[in-house]
Each structure stands twice: as structure tokens, then as C-alpha cells.
Specification:
By secondary structure, the protein is mostly helical. The chain has a single domain, classed as MFS general substrate transporter like domains (Growth Hormone, Chain: A), CATH 1.20.1250. The chain is 77% helix and 0% strand. Helix 11 runs antiparallel to helix 17. Keywords: Cell membrane, Membrane, Transmembrane, Transmembrane helix, Transport. It is a multi-pass membrane protein. It is found in: Cell membrane. Pfam families: Nuc_H_symport.
Amino acid sequence: MSTQTRKLSLFIMMALQLAIWGAWAPKLFPYMSMLGFTAGQQALVGSCWGIASVVGIFFSNQFADRHFAAERFLAVSHVIGSICLLGAAYSTSFPAFFAFYLAYSLVYVPTLSVTNTVAFANLPNGKDFGQVRSGGTVGWVMASWPFVFILSEHSGVEQVRSIFLVSAGISFALAVFSLTLPHTPPKKGGEGLDSLAWRRALGLLKKPFVAVLFFVTFLDSVVHNGYFVMADAFLTNRVGIAGNLSMVVLSLGQIAEVLTMLVLGVVLGKLGWRKTMIVGILGHAARFLAFAFLADSVPAIIAVQLLHGICYAFFFATVYIFVDEAFPKDVRSSAQGLFNLLILGVGNMVASYVFPNLIARLTGADGKVDYSTLFLVPAGLAALGALVLAFAFNPPTAAPAGTLEDA
């Protein structure tokens, strides 16, 4: 398989992987509200990804990493995930919905780090990851477009449950496609891998710059996940965008993400780790401040979605690249799992608890939410993260070069 063909295959893998997520993520919390789930029940659903991230550290990044070819692991996981999504689509009671969504989370979340592993293992240069990962952005955008026709302006439960049906179809498609990916064999102990690599990865938190990055990643993951908790309802209930168009409006951010991912390598080379991450996290602050004070301007709210590309590529994608470049080879996979635990797990859990409860507290007797006050919370968290990075993050290399072993 030529290098270009391999890159295209990995690009499609990322597109399908993120399309599964993008099909349901923007509407998940509004859908749960339609089902009558309380803020506490919504927080429990949000905790599923945290549970799955912890399991992923011990299973996908340890056991599966050493006993299964990555492409086969992806195929099996996505078949099971497709079945679970179908179950969630037709579950209206909280216990049943929670059970199916938890099962889906347990098989899907680990595949996010596995696809990263497959990409890095089959790319000649780690800096090409940005181009391959942009496929995920394309997939997320494409997943939103069917709902322009599936949903109506004021959709009910019967229509909105289609988010899981579409996602299930994409999941099955990726299961089949995974079998065509470049063979990525399991890692054996003979390759010098530490069977308890996750402990060594945790031990790296003793290094100040790793601890600082870990803390800021936690802050930004809360802000990032909070965006998905609040954005769709804000667009439809406050800004006045039709329910069948809100996902398309949100997808504008992913379109911008394609461009920023393509130039990420150049930006990293010019700005370095710290400045690139600061720009990324300040993108969150700017977007939420616009939400807080410009909600009456539909054009402004639509335009500010373009900041999402900067928010994701310049912070989260940069973190993934930093881990792959700066951490010792035998703990990189486990370190990716630890940061995934923050980004997809702990941050998701905290955001799923904090923001639904904040919305409940800031909802007046007339049923209207005080969004101006609400959005100052994530904006403040993002600003704090940027300050911590500016004054406390001192990586061993200024730009993509070197490893922790050289520090």
C-alpha cells in the first residue's frame, strides 16, 4: 500500500469514526430533556464516557493493545456499538436508555485512542496526523446534513431518536471498513513494552510541565464538553434557529476545523507548543463571551462557530501530538489513554453534571434560561486555563522536537 493510499484509508477511518459521534452528540441533551430525564439522570448518562475512559486505560490500551490487531478490534467494537445504538434509539425509560448508552460508551470510547494508535503506527511522520485527523472533522460535518431532511423545525421524540439510527448505520459501515485498514499487529512484550505502562505514564505527572498540561487539559475538556451540553438548546431556544438546522450551524465549526488541522503543523513550527495551546483555549473563551453578549445577533452567533476549529485543533490535537512526540515510546499509548480520560471522561462527567444543573438554577419561572450568566462560567474557566499555560507550562522543547527522555 502506497503512502498516499494509506493516508487516504486512515482519513476515511477518522471520518467514519467521528461521524458516529457527530450524528448524536449535538442533540443528546435536548433529546434526554424531551424524554423527561432529570438533570441528575442526564449527569449519569454523561458519566458513561468517564467510566468507559477508565476501562479503556486497562483494556484497549493494555490488554487489547497486546492481544488483538487494532483493525480487528475496531471492527468488533463498532459492530457491538451499532447494536447498542439501536437499543438506545428505542429506549424511552431511563434505566433502559442508560444501560444501552453505557454499553455503547464502553465499546466506542476506547476506539478513539485505538484509531489514533492506528494512525500514528502507519504514518511515516507524526506531523501528518493533523491532515489525517481532519478526516474526523469532515465526518462530523457530513453526519449533520441528513438531519436537515430527517428533522423538522420543531421535532419531537420520534424524529430526534433518528440521531441514534443514523449513528448505528455509520458504526456498522466503519466495522466493515476497519477490515480494509493497514494491518496493525498487537504489541508483544518482546518489543520492550512495560505491561504496567499506565503506572509509568501516571508517574510522569511528577514532572511539573506534565502536571500543568494535565490540569489545563481537564479545564479545557470541561469547557469543550460543556459546549456540546448547551449549544444546541441555546441555538434553538434563545437564538431562534430551526431545530433541523441547528446541527448544520454547529457543523460550521467543524468545517473551520478542517482548515486549522491542515495548517496545524505549520502553526506548531512557528508558535511552538505553549502559544498554540493558549490560542486554542482562548478560542473557547471568545466563543462563550459571544454567546453571552451577542445572542440577539444571529449572524454573529453563526460566525462565531468558526472558532471551533481553533479550539479543537490548536489545543486538543496539539496535546495528542505533544504526547506522541514528548513521551517515552513505551508509555505513549497509555499516556494517550490518560489524556483521553480527561478529555472524553472526567471532563465529560463534570460538564454533564455542572451545566445541566446550572441551567436548571438559571431557568426562571417563565422557563427562560439566563444564558448571559451561564456562559460566563465556561469563558472564565477557559481564561484561567490560558493564564496557567502562559505562566506555568514549560515543556522540554519549545516546538515539536525531542522527547521526555532528553529532558
